[in-house]
Amino acid sequence: MARGKWLVALGILILLAIAAGVLAVWHRDRAARRPAAQVTPAHTELPPGAEVSLKGAVAARHVIEVPASIDGILEQFHAEVGQEVFEGQLLAHIRNTKLESARDLAQMELETVRNRITNLESSIIAARLEASRAAADASRARSEFDRLQRLYERQRLLLKEGATPRQVYEKVEKEYLAAKAEYESAREVSQHADDRVSSLNRQLENLKKIQQDKEDDLEGATEALAATDVHSPVDGVVVSRRGEPGVEVTRDWNDLFVIATDLGDLRVILEPEPPLLARIQVAQPALVLIGEAGETPINGVVAEIRDTKVVVDFRSPTTDIKPGMTAQVRLKLQ
Fold it and tell me: CB–CB of 328/243 below 8 Å?
């Protein structure tokens, strides 16, 4: 009987120990799950004049947006973000197959006209030589005709006076008529040769007008195609660019490149938490710390507050500070 009571007491003790262990674990888990806000101090508890340090990104105050000059496929970038560029420097190339086809067609048509002009000029040279030979033949035929005409007229008068035999007259008349026919034929050939030269010259003149039109077309197509090259309008530093090679771009892309033009005037863009934002005012002073500028703070001022952002302007003491760098800004709460 005594032994049974001892066993019951031992069992109760074991149950109590297990219950105590479970209770201890429960309290520990509950403490671990307490909200972090209970140990995070509120910014509203900081007194006026308390200094806070906020991290932000350096940006340029003066920038120029470079748009996509034409619709097409972005084929290649020629400038990287952070790179210094000069006015007129090639920044990117946009491929436009329609403009390329128009340029190629204009080039082909111009070459066709030029070949026709070359062939026609060769024909004109040959035609002029032929006209020259025909004119020489006509001149010789005319001389012979004139000689025989004079002889014929003399024989005709002599025959009328009975002073020459008819046989001699008829011989001279036959030679005269043959010379006349030869001269008229040579004159006609010469006239046709001259007409051909004139006709070819008119064709050449028309082709040269067409050539000028085709050259204008090619110049226009080449100028249009030149718009596929995007050039920098100013000296500065590329702070951002849009897209990647292979993507389709349109003229609506006004910010294909963004170029900072004055790296002396910079700013830091901050996004403080709402409680801090409410205690920062425009025109209040600030200190800007940037690792690349050394340990000496740079004087700045809160230039504007827009939406959730605070803009702190400062004048850079060195060209080593570039847009995109990280800065710490110290501000005193109001």
Answer: no
